[in-house]
């Protein structure tokens, strides 16, 4: 059995440094906006929060992570990988340590951990990453569409974004599309037969997740999880004395999160913050409250997830290394 190596420390340090630079850039942007409104107003808004209110926001974020981790476990088991829930939780949460890498590609470390612990081929594991992204897109698209329909005020291009995200989630989970693309690429080039064959094999596994008894709970868990964080924004604005309608707040949070993801920046940094501030101001939220709410909600969602990931990552790495070593000894 081939024994894979651990992710080089220099690579992890580079990814963390890159994420830190993006975070500093976003913090600088928020600081400049705060200076434009006056420091005291922004600080006074944040000072309104007590320990209980911060705890509520963190619990809502934990609800999101828990629902999505359970969704990950459902997909892992559906892929025929015999891993306990504890392993899925460890992999999913540990992957958050790499969420500030460009396009969040660092989160693919979850696949690597599964491979090292189970010895399964990557063609069997790789579809999980695509399914996870598609499930997020589908869930957020449905949340955005429903919240826009029920909100008193709309978001320009919101329904178009929801439709586009839902269509993309549907397209990228069609096994026939990937198989046809791989076959077409081989016929056109006559090359890359082995990797294209692996792509077709991996795509074939997507069919396992299209049955309603799998697709419905996968979507439902994502909807509950992401809606929880949207509720956090709604509560936060109320605490800041700048209430926005329940459905409008959820629509703003979801649209901003999708917008940030489209930028490809680590964790959606920059795009999500800019979209959220702009949408809040357009909803008659004072600029100081919009800046404060954006800063707090990002700290209690994205950066809270990163902190959890940094704690869990070394645990997941050690466990995967131990399992890999055991597999290697068994196959000698």
UniProtKB/TrEMBL annotation:
The lineage of its organism: Bacteria, Pseudomonadati, Pseudomonadota, Alphaproteobacteria, Rhodobacterales. GO terms for cellular component: plasma membrane. It is a multi-pass membrane protein. InterPro entries: L-PG_synthase/AglD (IPR022791). This is Flippase-like domain-containing protein. The chain crosses the membrane at residues 16-34, 46-67, 137-160, 166-188, 209-228, 234-258, 265-283, 289-316. It is found in: Cell membrane. Keywords: Cell membrane, Membrane, Transmembrane, Transmembrane helix.
